[in-house]
Design a protein that fits this description.
The protein is of the alpha/beta class and 432 residues long. It folds into two domains: 2-122, no CATH class; 158-428, Alpha/Beta hydrolase fold, catalytic domain (Rossmann fold). The chain has 16 helices and eight strands. Strand 7, helix 15 and strand 8 form a beta-alpha-beta unit.
Length: 432
Amino acid sequence: MDFLSDVSLVDGPFMWFCVGFGAVGGLYLLWRRQRSWPVVVLACLLLSVGVVALVHWILIDLMASFSENLPFETLVWSVIAVTALLLSIARLPRNGAKSRLLGCVAMLGVVLLCVAQVNLYFGLNKTVADLLGTAVARIQPLEPSLQRSAGSVPGPSLSAWKAPDSLPGGGVLRKAHIPGTASGFDARDAYIYLPPAYLSTPRPSLPVLILYAGQPGGPTDWLSGGRLRALLDRFAEDHGGLAPVTVVVDPNGSANANTMCMDSNIAHADTYLSQDVPAWISSTLDVSTDHRQRAVGGFSFGGTCALQMGTLHPNLFPSVVAFSAEREPALAKDRGKTIADSFGGDVEAFESRTPLVLMAERRYSGSGVYLVSGEADHEFTAYMHELADAARNSGFDTHEQSIARAGHSWDAVIEGMPGALGFLAKRWGIPQ
């Protein structure tokens, strides 16, 4: 069973099987001894383009399920899948039972290839365990022995701490519920990474990194698609066991909800993230109490959320790492709908909480931001440059990184995280 859990869904035998199965299935559907069949193929292709375009319009413009257009690559694979479905249907009327069965199997091969390619693009489910959630389900609740004890005194500084010979080789993951004491917000469980240094005695005074995932999605996406534990373990290995205590929190409450990380008519998400979460960290985890040793970060929606926290609460979160952040928070592609649903149409109330407006009005000397985007993600790369210019002009210590061949996917996070952690390490004073 463990062997099956570790099977890769993005390379190796499974991906080669998908490519072979899909290619053979596609050739079978495209070939037929019928003069009019090329016309049928073209008609199915054009119809599938129309179907995908219609569904995309319904999701983005009518239902506002997403605030940005879906990536072009995912739309192309969707068109191919719908075309295969239409071709298999077109073959049904004059075929025998055997040919109908082969047509259905061929269609399934093409659809499987398309689904695998969409998953490969986003990079969320890299193994069977990621897809089924079995690895995350095994994460244990945060036990008392790993929590701050009453009356505990701050540990040695990062520069003064010496790693013991018995230091573990890697960190541990735990989960916990962070209550919305001040906000009334009902969040999903948070996930906490504790580095090897946290497991030593005495514990050093460690910095804290708070992370937010994309939308739709949730905190577990950082563990599967973001490969958070492996990235932080690698950082700790390179820094004598030191790494930030990392808390992945939930700003939405459910997979499809969108609070925009604001206090609005939708929820008091900002109060939860700026009051409840920091208070829980300070009272529960044995970490540095110096807010200069804290940072926020996130991917996509989460990157936008991190910028909001860093611009609205610079004293709490003076360091920001934002992967593929939006230009501004959004419920829908239609900005008017976003403002109507969240602030009853009050444009000023909405804009007073957006990073670009705040950076135009305030100075952020002492704050730092590290922005990352995939080179193939042209829309969000343009956002990155606009946000970077605004941050630089407002006094942020600003850094940008473009990830070659990456789109709007977790691959951009995985490739960009080492640079982001290096940026934070310098700000926190982690010995190199």
